[in-house]
Amino acid sequence: xxxxxxxxxxxxxxxxxxxxxxxxxxxxxxxxxxxxxxxxxxxxxxxxxxxxxxxxxxxxxxxxxxxxxxxxxxxxxxxxxxxxxxxxxxxxxxxxxxxxxxxxxxxxxxxxxxxxxxxxxxxxxxxxxxxxxxxxxxxxxxxxxxxxxxxxxxxxxxxxxxxxxxxxxxxxxxxxxxxxxxxxxxxxxxxxxxxxxxxxxxxxxxxxxxxxxxxxxxxxxxxxxxxxxxxxxxxxxxxxxxxxxxxxxxxxxxxxxxxxxxxxxxxxxxxxxxxxxxxxxxxxxxxxxxxxxxxxxxxxxxxxxxxxxxxxxxxxxxxxxxxxxxxxxxxxxxxxxxxxxxxxxxxxxxxxxxxxxxxxxxxxxxxxxxxxxxxxxxxxxxxxxxxxxxxxxxxxxxxxxxxxxxxxxxxxxxxxxxxxxxxxxxxxxxxxxxxxxxxxxxxxxxxxxxxxxxxxxxxxxxxxxxxxxxxxxxxxxxxxxxxxxxxxxxxxxxxxxxxxxxxxxxxxxxxxxxxxxxxxxxxxxxxxxxxxxxxxxxxxxxxxxxxxxxxxxxxxxxxxxxxxxxxxxxxxxxxxxxxxxxxxxxxxxxxxxxxxxxxxxxxxxxxxxxxxxxxxxxxxxxxxxxxxxxxxxxxxxxxxxxxxxxxxxxxxxxxxxxxxxxxxxxxxxxxxxxxxxxxxxxxxxxxxxxxxxxxxxxxxxxxxxxxxxxxxxxxxxxxxxxxxxxxxxxxxxxxxxxxxxxxxxxxxxxxx
Length: 752
Ligand code: PEP
Ligand code: MG
Prior knowledge:
By secondary structure, the protein is of the alpha/beta class. The protein starts with a helix and ends in a 5-residue tail after the last helix.
């Protein structure tokens, strides 16, 4: 009854404050309490008294408590309820004279949870030393859940400043502020996007919160729990999984949870309190998420994560909403949010509608980020917990430069970003103006600037950026986006098309680099403990020589009568290079035997991505036509960090002495042997890092297309001798150079 009454009150055409006042009055009456107070958590981190029945009305909007302060603050901090017959005796009790609460003895308070986060606190108090029953706590929790939902979905008035009835400090503004949220992650692909939230793994919608027939809901819950258990058991006994170790562990944990009395009891209690079974499952899930955010033990967190997944499954059983991924109807300005995503999953989305991507995990060298940059889709990674905070259809702004995401942005944020978009457009016009100009430093050094590419969609970038050529063509992207192994003709046509578009601009094709995070759906790979150190790149290609053989055949055929530049990924020792090169020779012989035209020129080089190869350079260089440094992998192996692990993003500075010394040694060796060298990892894409590379002696850089403009602008304003002095000193004194380079650039007006 009360729940229905609360919904009616909130739907009344009154101002928000008046409705909240009615709400607390109704709750107090229903719970037979003298006091009912509602506190909302404001963006400044303070809990503000928003409405009260029983306390001094003058205290409304005047009383504030920090999270952790007083009993209300304790409830917000722990996201847990408090029920005390003698509240004033509790060590956390904080007396606020303006409220006049000294006459009330007992207190019961519960957090208002929204998406696993505390957005406020709901409290009732009584004059007597009352022992609140467990059912009363349950009821108050249910009320708080409904209230949290109503408050969070409260519509903003249409009115704007200057129009009567609008008060900037008014409740609507506070609610807008409480709803809006900023997440700081890492920019993974540049650009700004405005749009609407689309969940990569869609969440289940719950339309009815309040049960009309509690008994029916109880039965539904029990049946769905049974179905869930059967489903998990079915998965466990399936042949496919019988041998899969890791998966099985996870499922066994699921099975354990599905039988777990604690969990099922909490679900049942929530149903008894008047919620529908689906709303009960959601409430328990939210409490679970709130717990998840408080635990730091990684094992426990994982278990809670499993329980979260299981709750989603249960919700699907309860509501029958089993939407297969990919059946999504996308809005025109889709911003996809995911925990993490593979590069192929990103490519599944309709490019014309996809405006941005946000992932909770991920780092800027993961392949999904590389694909996002190729497609020029702004992307932010490391936005922890954002999924707990958004609803599909929410408006969202994504800033791939600062790594910021604004959920339900306020008017001023929207205005600021509209201005930033305009500024970016002006900057882009500046880069466009440089398109036809050569990249030459102030002191006369010509720097070759190439783009990295891998898909047909990348090819127009050659013209729009005015790049010299393609320094790295990642052939595996074509393999990654196809559902089946691309046939010889399909491969040949793609390579031919690339060469056609490039014309007389140089293209360097890299042979298939799969393994690690780039897994092909149709190529079965054994499970590995450390895929980054496993069967990948040329190692894998050697183990399955037919893959590489067909690819080489396609490349040679595509380049008939033209120049072909080829390189191999992930070479660890000279023998591997020799072996791969021998395969090219075999294919060439085959071609000549068949009387087909070979490429007019053939240059064969290698990627330098494994530190061991650096120490073989004097012996390797006489064998190769060029070297291309894959700094993403080279730095990962050099510093021994996982490039996919967001924890390490930015932790090891490539502009510190060890890596600079490594890069200096490589360029010196290549110069000594007169072997052309370039850098094609993400390092070359960032103007400041590119400046350091030029200082070290690099004259050829290959980068994501979006970086050509900023890097060229830097080059054209650079005095390379100045940068050389700083990096050489850094290496000699074993000191990082980032700060000095920033200071040097600022002093000389070099944009970076
Ligand atoms: C690299 O490792 O730097 C590189 C360019 O290759 P990928 O990023 O494709 O592994
Ligand atoms: Mg690599």
